[in-house]
Amino acid sequence: MYFGIFTSIFTKINVTQILKDTAKHQGLRNQLAKILEEKGITDKSVLDAIKKIPRHLFLNSSFEDFAYQDKAFPIAAGQTISQPYTVAFQSQLLQVKKDDKILEIGTGSGYQTAVLCMLGAKVFSVERQNELFKITSALLPKLGIRPKHLSFGDGYKGLPNHAPFDSIIVTAGAPIIPKPLMAQLKIGGRLVIPLGENEQVMTMLIRKNETQFEKHEFGEFRFVPLLENKN
Ligand code: SAH
Predict the structure, then answer these.
(1) Which sequence spans correspond to the domains of the chain?
(2) pLDDT score of 205
């Protein structure tokens, strides 16, 4: 399948990348989904989304041959596209239902955004690197993926104008749980956030009522840091 031509600024020079998805890519995606299942991902809808999203198109074309390995890779602005297992793990924790309103902090490459859209969520995503915001805003519609709202700004603040959210996902390592994110979560909603400086503990808060949150922890992961905005 051809998605057309996309002019990318993933590297310092402009490269024209043809958005091409082949049977070979599909085969590699099926294998990746199998590996994720073996690693403990059980949610079929998440595995199906992994089988559908062309991860190689979210990376610089020089990584194309590796795109379906279960690894993180560098993207623009010194950031990384999360490891597929991490994307699947966080997505599974959210227990996404169709039309759930989800806030994502750290759009990055847009791969996690795409998985959430494929799960039927209305995704609102915030990115603090303008370069990535621009690249990803251009890429997603070319792949037929339409988040509700992409914005450039500081994820620590969430998106108060669009709150409350059914779930919130943070895809960068956070030293603390930002209070505005807790405030923007619906009662019954889930906030999934990797917490810690060098290594992070995957943490999920479930909002019980106005003031109480139930905390669950799920082992260690490694993310680029959630940074305060420079604007
Ligand atoms: N889900 C993305 C993860 C990218 S890495 C993917 O798989 O591609 C984490 C992203 O969080 C980076 O793009 C980084 O720029 C962004 N980020 C870091 N601090 C942030 C903040 N305060 N607000 C919004 N985005 C932030």
Answers:
(1) 74-221
(2) 98
Q: At 170, which amino acid appears?
A: V
Question: The tokens of 224 are what?
Answer: 């680029």
204-219: pLDDT as tens digits: 999 999 999 999 999 9
User: Among 56, 154, 224, which residue has the most ligand 1 atoms within 8 Å of its CB, making it the best to mutate?
Assistant: 224
Q: Are 187 and 208 in contact (CB under 8 A)?
A: yes
Q: Could you confirm whether domain 74-221 is CATH 3.40.718.10?
A: no
- Write the DSSP assignment of 74-128 as a string of letters: E-GGG-EEPPHHHHHHHHHHHT--TT-EEEEE--TTSHHHHHHHHTT-EEEEEES
Distance 214 CA to ligand 1 centre (A): 25
Q: What is the pLDDT of residue 228?
A: 80
